[in-house]
């Protein structure tokens, strides 16, 4: 046996559930836009720092992230050992050596 619903009940159901999805998708789109904006700023900072040090962005210097500390710029060991950072930069290391 098939149950029949009134048009008003169907409209109420659809507006309640479809409206909720619409609100969530709009919020998700706004968050995506904010995230893209932050990533663009971080990439610009990577390029600025790499240019300041004379390094190749994405090769000798990379933008990375971790759950514990967030985003950070990482340089290759070869660059660090060669001493190409100069005195204007501070080297932070998570390693004991």
Order of helices and strands: HEEH
Count every beta strand, where a strand is a DSSP E run of 2 or more residues: 2
Helix/sheet category: alpha+beta
What number of structural domains do the residues give?
Answer: 1
Low-confidence regions: none
Tally of helical runs: 2
Explain what you see.
By secondary structure, the chain is α+β, with helices and mostly antiparallel strands. It has 2 helices and 2 strands; from the N terminus they run αββα. The chain starts with 6 loop residues before the first helix and ends in a 15-residue tail after the last helix. 2% of the residues are buried.
Concise account of the structure shown:
The chain is α+β, with helices and mostly antiparallel strands and 97 residues long. The protein has helices at 7-53, 77-82, and strands at 61-66, 70-75. It has a single domain, classed as Orthogonal Bundle (MutS, DNA mismatch repair protein, Chain A, domain 3), CATH 1.10.1420.
């Amino acid at each position: 046996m098939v149950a029949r619903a009134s048009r008003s009940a169907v409209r109420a159901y659809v507006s309640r559930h479809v409206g909720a999805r619409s609100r969530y998708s709009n919020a998700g789109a706004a968050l995506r836009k904010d995230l893209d904006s932050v990533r663009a700023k971080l990439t610009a900072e990577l390029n600025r720092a790499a240019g300041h040090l004379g390094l190749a962005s994405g090769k000798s210097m990379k933008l990375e992230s971790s759950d514990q500390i967030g985003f950070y710029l990482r340089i290759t060991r070869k660059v660090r050992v060669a001493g190409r950072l100069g005195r204007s930069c501070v080297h932070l290391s998570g390693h004991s050596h």
